[in-house]
Amino acid sequence: MSGLNLIKCGAILTIQGGEIKMKQLSTFAWIAIFATGAAVVNGIGIWVIFKNRKWAEKAKVYFMCFASGVLISSPLIIAFPQAISKNSYAGYATLTGFLFMFFSNQLIKYRTKQKEIAFGITAVEGIGIHSFVDGIIYSVTFSASILTGFLSGIGLVVHEFAEGVITFSILIKGGFKEKKAALYALFVAALTTPLGAFIAYPFINKLNSSILGLALGFVVGVLIYISASHLLPEAQTHQKKHSILAFLSGIALALFIAFSKIV
Length: 263
What we know:
Elements: H1 3-8, E1 11-16, E2 19-24, H2 27-51, H3 53-86, H4 90-112, H5 121-144, H6 146-173, H7 178-190, H8 192-204, H9 209-237, H10 243-260
Antiparallel strand pairs: 1-2
């Protein structure tokens, strides 16, 4: 069996006593790796802006563009066809997921009286809910297949850097001191993602194929909304040189992984 096939089977290679051995990873292990990785990347974003605001503000645009490229490609070419194959009504669930995110965003704007994501506690509350939902997404996508979870996970993990930067900035503008803003941002934006994944997995794991298809369809709508209505507009507002290249690179990576089937 080739190395590519090992990865495709959801396994990793380990070296013990000079011998290469295959270790099969469970669905929960993949969820834990990506959910924890998301928290780490988010924390890195918070730490970087805490130490160097100028560089972090510049870099977040490229992270958002790359993440949006992955997150708008992988649901359409992998997750949505899988959802339809499991349940022919998954398209309705996709629409529901998109509308859920749309009206959730409208509710946050209404409560904060801001056109942009608001400053202060209410805005951070919204980010916390969003991060918690990210964790649930890991459970749903990896339960559908390793490929779906891997592709969706890449986009979500990458966008966590920008989310950490944004959360810290919001808290600073909301009047928090730097150290307290960093601590609150870590708790609200980073730790809620693995929390959502670990809480959701026992329930998602018990779903039959048809219900999982609806859940996956719902997640597709959420991912498309995050990419098309949140990440891309924010990146375009602060567009920089090579940001389009970063977006296209995200799409190219998703297509490469999907067609080469290395996961």
